[in-house]
Design a protein that fits this description.
Blueprint (H helix, E strand, L loop, with lengths): L1 H12 L3 H15 L7 E7 L7 H20 L4 E7 L39 H15 L5 E4 H7 L3 H9 L1 H8 L5 H6 L3 E3 L14 E3 L4 E5 L5 E5 L5 E3 L1 H12 L6 E2 L3 H13 L9 E2 L2 E2 L16 H7 L2 H9 L6 E2 L4 H18 L3 H5 L2 H5 L13 H11 L4 H11 L9 H18 L10 H16 L6 H14 L6 H12 L7 H8 L1 H12 L7
Helix pairs in contact: 2-3, 7-10, 9-10, 12-13, 16-18, 19-20, 19-23, 20-22
Length: 531
């Protein structure tokens, strides 16, 4: 008990965003303890397409808050990953087989559309299975819940009847935010046509709370009376969100910045229905390299599969952990930086004795309070540069240089490094090799490189990276490179064929003085075309 109280006090002093959110939630729970006897976290997923990095981000970030909350409170917690699989299919994704076969099913609930992949009973069931496999692969602790199941089983029925009773009050919340045409026909209730099976956005001609039904005209013009319960109708998405919050008693759910207004409107509807809106967290959206919002339809982002081809799961989690309320550019060049930063943070965590600083370190959250130990004798950035300068296609080429620096290193003794070697080779093949462009040295460059060559050729015992870096600075100054970064840019362009690169003293220390002399010799014989 003393240890628990001590940890609580430490978390009061730590201002990481998961800790701040967990304290906010605890204050709310202590003011109004949930009658259901547990604290319920939720995330939502639209299964019209495959799970993506945004899905991962929301579940991951919610999990971080949940795990801190569990350290602060004895309240049991649950996390629901809710699939909106009763939504009507609005457009056909590009990445499904035989898309033409789905055309007759446009507008139908996702769980009433045949599975184009041929593996499940419906399109929605297929996407739900992909979601669960996706979350399971990352070890998330969650419970899956389907909108179709909740609507059809009667789990939502009591609140749906309340929607029917308070139909006009809900309309008045939403109408000011609609255009004139949609305002004329808007209802929070969407009947599902008994004839076509499509989700209809049609005027509700009459609400009949005493019968639990609505009256509307079907697509063929026939007047139809339909129960709002049992899966015969569903709600428009703002009202649908409020329905879920109310019926399930959600205590915490985050959302993207683009949904701020919808969160507010759904909260108002939730109160009309007699519920209490959950505490929330608004996160910023991802941007591409040009600073434009990432869109699945544009394909201007990167997928989780692509990140994991070139980086690690931990580096992705670190990227998502950092500054969630700041828009961040998500493109391939951020991957190597976050791989190295993860290992730097891990090393800093284990070197730190102050428990407050340990709790402020991202790796505490990434690993649920128990970060592993891992030694990385060569950084990922260095591996990329070694792969670039050696034109490496095989892992053994990189291991040869690693062993020259750390003789006992093997894939078995350093499994984390072995993973990064394979990632570095993939990154080199896909991004570095196609873009290598060597620049021929000019007269000043040749003089400076020649002096550097003489220095390296004269080295006896292996000098430290710091000693080499100091000499590099001195050579740059002697040859009039101002600012000095132009000297290092020259080294990158002339020796490595790229515009950016590593701290060059460290690079030479790893690559070897003799090997660097060979690089300089090749550069000095290169013609004006860079060949």
């Amino acid at each position: 008990m003393v240890e628990r109280e001590r940890e609580r006090e430490l978390f009061r002093e730590v201002r990481t965003w998961p800790a701040v959110e967990a304290w906010k939630l605890l204050a709310r729970i202590e003011r109004r303890p949930p009658e259901k006897g547990h604290v319920l976290f939720a995330t939502g997923y639209g299964p019209s397409g495959l799970p993506h990095i945004g899905t991962f981000a929301e579940v991951f970030r919610t999990t971080l808050i949940r795990q801190v909350f569990a350290r602060l409170s004895d309240w049991p917690t649950r996390l629901i990953c809710f699939s909106d699989d009763m939504d009507g299919l609005r457009k056909i994704p590009d990445n499904v087989p035989d898309p033409e076969a789905l055309v007759p099913h446009l507008g139908k609930p996702l769980t009433r559309i045949p599975d184009p992949f041929g593996t499940h009973e419906s399109y929605g069931a297929h996407m739900n299975a992909r979601l669960r496999a996706f979350l399971d692969a990352f070890g998330f602790a969650y419970e899956f819940l389907s909108a179709t199941e909740c609507y059809r089983s009667g789990r939502f029925d009591a609140v749906l009847l309340r929607v029917l009773e308070r139909h006009e009050a809900i309309r008045q919340v939403v109408l000011p935010h609609l255009g004139p045409e949609r305002r004329a026909t808007y209802s929070p209730i969407l009947p599902i046509s008994p004839k076509t099976g499509r989700v209809l956005q049609v005027p509700i001609l009459e609400c009949r709370p005493e019968r639990g039904t609505v009256l509307f005209r079907d697509e063929d013009g026939e007047l139809v009376e339909l129960p709002v319960t049992g899966g015969h109708c569903k709600l428009q998405w703002r009202a649908d969100w409020a329905l879920r919050w109310t019926a399930l008693g959600i205590d915490y759910e985050m959302a993207g910045k683009d949904l701020i207004d919808s969160v507010r409107l759904s909260g108002e509807i939730c109160r009309i229905l007699g519920g209490t809106p959950p505490l929330g967290f608004i996160y910023e959206l991802f941007l591409d390299e040009k600073g434009e919002k990432i869109s699945k339809s544009k394909g201007n982002g990167i997928t989780i599969e692509e990140w994991l081809r070139y980086g690690t799961k931990e580096s992705l989690m670190l990227f998502l952990y950092k500054e969630p309320r700041r828009a961040k550019r998500l493109y391939f060049d951020v991957i190597p930086r976050h791989v190295d930063e993860y290992f730097q943070q891990l090393q800093a965590y284990h070197a730190e004795s102050d428990p407050r600083k340990r709790l402020a370190n991202p790796v505490w959250y990434l690993h649920g309070g128990d970060p592993p130990r891992a030694e990385l004798p060569v950084s990922y950035g260095m591996l990329l540069n070694l792969a670039s300068v050696t034109n490496a296609e095989q892992a053994e080429v990189l291991w040869k240089f690693i062993r020259s620096y750390r003789p006992a290193a093997t894939p078995e003794s350093h499994p984390e490094l072995a993973v990064l070697v394979e990632r570095a080779l993939a990154y080199y093949r896909d991004f570095v090799a196609p873009n290598k462009r060597y620049r021929a040295p000019d007269a000043r460059d040749r003089a400076a490189l020649s002096e550097l060559r003489r220095y390296l050729a004269s080295l006896g015992d292996r000098p430290s990276a710091e000693e080499i870096q100091a000499e590099l600075y001195a050579i740059g100054r002697r040859h009039g490179y101002a600012p000095l970064r132009t000297w290092f840019k020259t080294l990158y362009e002339v020796l490595l064929g790229q515009s950016e690169g590593p701290r060059f003293g460290s690079f030479i220390a790893h690559y070897g003085a003799a090997n660097t002399v060979d690089l300089i010799d090749r550069a000095l014989t290169r013609d004006d075309d860079g060949r």
